[in-house]
Amino acid sequence: MGATLTNQNSIEEEIKNSLKSGNACYHSVRNLLSPSLLSKNLKIKIHITIILPVVVYGCETWSLTLREERRLRVFDNRVLRRIFVPSRDEVTGELRKVYNEELNDVYCSLNIVRVTKSRRMRLARHVALMGERKSVYRVLVGKPKVKRPLGRPRHSWEDSIKMDLQEVGCEGMDRIELAQDKDSWRALVNAVLNLRVA
Q1: CA 194 to chain centre
Q2: What per-residue string of b and e applies to 6-31 under the rule 16 or more CB within 10 Å gives b?
Q3: Model's pTM, two decimal places?
Q4: Letter string b/e over residues 121-153, b meaning 16 or more CB atoms within 10 A of that residue's CB
Q5: What residues does each domain of the chain span?
Q6: pLDDT tens digits for 165-192?
Q7: CA distances in angstroms from 62 to 5, 16, 89, 94, listed in the order given
């Protein structure tokens, strides 16, 4: 999928490249997102169908840290601020910036972090059903047989899946058993997609 894997399990460079591509895409359609040209619903559709897929391409393999989640949300909020023009202050009547909380309230559709998590969960089912012999399973879930350096171990892809399951109330459940039932897993993916991200 064009993802760059490192031996340190760092996706910082991957996120940087995705945001760079997303910025290029955003600037190519920026004029369409100007206040008077199109309706807000149409602008949101442009964001969901043109800009968002470019940024989250290959996100199924990402193991996001809080810092990387914040970088993704900053990009998403910048695009949304272009769509939802500055609002007028109720007291002074002057134009002011739309705050993040207001964006979350007004724009209750897709959140970039939730999209990333739901896509990762979708891939997790396929990986769980593959078995240990497949190379994809070994790359994403396997444990290398080398001595680990001192310090706290890095957050792995499998750890991210466990955290996603924990967020939807499936803590401690065996994901391979859960993956056997397609409809239940689809419900879990939808639950992750609809989580409120702070």
Answers
A1: 12
A2: eeeeebeebbebbbeebbebbeeeee
A3: 0.78
A4: bbbbbebbebeeeeeebeebbeeeeeeeeeeee
A5: 12-109, 116-193
A6: 888 888 777 777 788 888 888 888 888 8
A7: 10, 12, 39, 42
